[in-house]
User: Fold this.
Amino acid sequence: MLPGARKDNIIDLASRERPSRRRLVKELFDRHAAALRLFLLGRAVPRDRIEDLLQELFARLMDADRLEEKMSDATGSNRSYLLTMANNLIVDRQRKLRVRTAYAAAQRQIESEQVDERTPERIVAAQLELEAIKAIIRNMRLNWRVALVLQRFRNMSYEEIALHMGVTEKQVENYIVRAMRQIRKARRKIKAAGERSC
Assistant:
């Protein structure tokens, strides 16, 4: 078992039916974890996030295609491969953080611009818009709807949603982007219809 890992962790669960893959991943961890920790520290990853990143890295190894072939002695440096994976993981997390930060800033900007009176007309218009958006969500593709609801209303991370849905984090991100695009498009139509009726 990997150091510091719980018995119900993702590697343990993913490897129950793949003992040879588990042995290879454990061997890679035993051999290269110290170097990976130093690499992550050198990339300014906070100490309290390093073990999480290592856990995610080795969880990804459990699902990597042709891992045994890639990690054979004939293919060269296993450590280089693992360091590249770790670097890609850092870049991916930084990109997601930038997207979330930009989205939060845009939301704050929108909210600050929407400070206005609560007239009965605006309340009714907001209720109608809400009902229209609920209808859009109910009628969107199932994967999009599930990912959106879990992320927006249950505050689940992309990783948690991916595990729940049995897909990759990239697929979850894609579902949410498409769902939000559909909602924004519907809101533009609602707003345009409201302006025409005035």
